[in-house]
Here is the input.
Amino acid sequence: MTIGLFILRLVVGGLFIGHGTQKLFGWFGGHGPEGTGQFFSQIGYSPGKPMAYLAGMSEAGGGGLLLLGFLTPLGCAMIVGVMVGTLAVHLPKGLWNTNGGYELPLVMATAATALAYAGPGRVSIDAALGWSTSGIAIATAATVFGLMAGGVMLAVRSGRAQQAEEQRQPRRAA
Here is the structure.
């Protein structure tokens, strides 16, 4: 089981490092903070550039923690939060990724949640430090924190999108 957890952490953590650095630095074909910020503004996450930095740091930071098996529940919470925050964009498109749906964010959030419950395994910094970072209470707290953080992002986006829509509507005389 330890090798399986290690492989899962390497793949999920590594992909999130890459995904985050696309936003932060434009690496791996990403658009950096400018391009990502413009996209974020278009989909209601404004101000776009700071939101791009926030998402990029959450993805790269959470991925790094997961990859190392260091503060694993925090890394899992960061990934869950970012993935929940993407629901506003992916949910209306249905389940499947081929249509831009929420399939991949769901898989990644589920993998992070499963790792929070299983723990990082013996091949991790947490284990080397003798930290017990798994267990129902810690994993549930990490998952709930991630869900809440993502929910806040959805609420912020929703409120800003509603304000923008109201500003676009012509005012009617009473």
